[in-house]
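Task 17 of the worksheet. Students: predict the tertiary structure of the chain below and write it out as structure tokens. Keep your answer in the requested format; marks are given for formatting as well as content.
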Amino acid sequence: MYFVRQIESGLNMKPNTSFELTVSDIEVIETSLRKTLSSLAEQRLMHVQSSIKPEHEIKSVGVVDEAISEVNNLLGRLHEQKEWFRPQGQLYIGG
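Model answer:
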């Protein structure tokens, strides 16, 4: 809920539950989320390396870990909603 808290602060809005996105739109979103993950990983590393405390005692690491988990979950949900092409009437070997 890291990102939701940032967005919802002070806003009264009703979410749109119907989206019309192209494959290209989804690719842009996924790329942006992966860049966000990279940035979050760098932030986490910086917090850990700048402290002598164990990781589990650093509050900022917990916040970053929550954000990383949220982004990973979203990427997973996007992946699960894709319809993958499988040739009909032929032997399909995935890989």
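Marker's comment: The chain has a mean pLDDT of 85. Helices lie at 2-8, 23-49, 59-80.
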